[in-house]
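Figure 2 data, in text form.
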Amino acid sequence: EVQLVESGGGLVQAGGSLRLSCTISGFIDDDAALAWFRQAPGKERDGVSCMKRRDGRAYYDDDVKGRFTIFADRAENKVYLQMNSLKPEDTAVYYCAVGRATMLSAWAYDYWGQGTQVTVFS
């Protein structure tokens, strides 16, 4: 069974940076998609970034493009989200996910972590 555990969330001032980590246990295929989603209070869960585990090709939501970077350490079976130039509107619970298709739609993902809170204050 695949299990995901996120870490690295916290409280940060606007303009600052955080790096989220997701440790993946269990077997996942090289063709799996790895992704980060976020959910703010009262809002839907939205895709932030995703990548193909095999080749590292990444995709980003327009709101984070140029500020966030997704990358993976295949040897340690981890996926990261480096978040720079954070804004108050980035405040949300961030979830990592593993799925079948490299897209920013929650339905494409089969496994989810429990989430980590990111709060950005101005």
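Caption note: The longest strand covers residues 18-25.
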